[in-house]
Design brief:
By secondary structure, this protein is mainly beta. About 10% of the residues lie in helices and about 35% in strands. It is globular and about 40 Å long.
Length: about 160
């Protein structure tokens, strides 16, 4: 199948999956803290369908309090699950862009280059990381596969979760 056909198929799948979505569940606070989950309105339209990526993962592929890395030609991300649901984050350290490693829900993520640490929700805990990891909008295709909007328009607040 050609790249154009793959792009067209991915666009159609994403458009169908997102056309009827008006709300994405969100969680206040970091995962595992017993925080109350809430509903947060976000745009149901992924602005740049060509940059939205299919992760190849289903919601059931992400264990509770775990993060699964997805390395693509476009971007490297983590898809994680906490008590409030699923979320997606950029895997690049905000210091120099080196991919961070998932340690555990308790210990979060760590950059192997200069040792910067992030909590399980991507909040920077130590230098030299100057800022938190970016969070991206996450949705499901009709097949159940998780889709992540990695465009600048897809950046969401760190408490946004997909129920699941």
């Amino acid at each position: 199948m050609s790249d154009i056909d793959n792009d067209r198929r991915r666009f159609c799948q994403a458009a169908l999956a997102l056309a009827g979505t008006a709300l994405i569940p969100a969680c206040g606070g970091s995962g595992g803290s017993g925080a109350q989950c809430k509903m947060a309105p976000v745009s149901s339209e992924i602005t740049n369908q060509a940059r939205a990526i299919s992760t190849g993962l289903m919601a059931d592929d992400i264990p509770m309090n775990a993060a699964v890395a997805r390395m693509t030609s476009q971007i490297n991300i983590f898809v994680a699950r906490d008590d409030c649901g699923l979320y997606a984050m950029d895997a690049g350290c905000t210091h120099l862009g080196t991919n961070v490693n998932f340690v555990s829900a308790k210990d979060g993520f760590q950059c192997p280059l200069h040792g910067a640490k992030y909590d399980f929700n991507g909040e920077n805990q130590t230098a030299p990381a100057p800022s938190p990891l970016k969070h991206y909008a996450i949705s499901t295709l009709p097949s159940g596969e998780l889709l992540v909007d990695v465009t600048p328009e897809g950046v969401v607040d760190a408490d946004v979760r997909l129920k699941g």
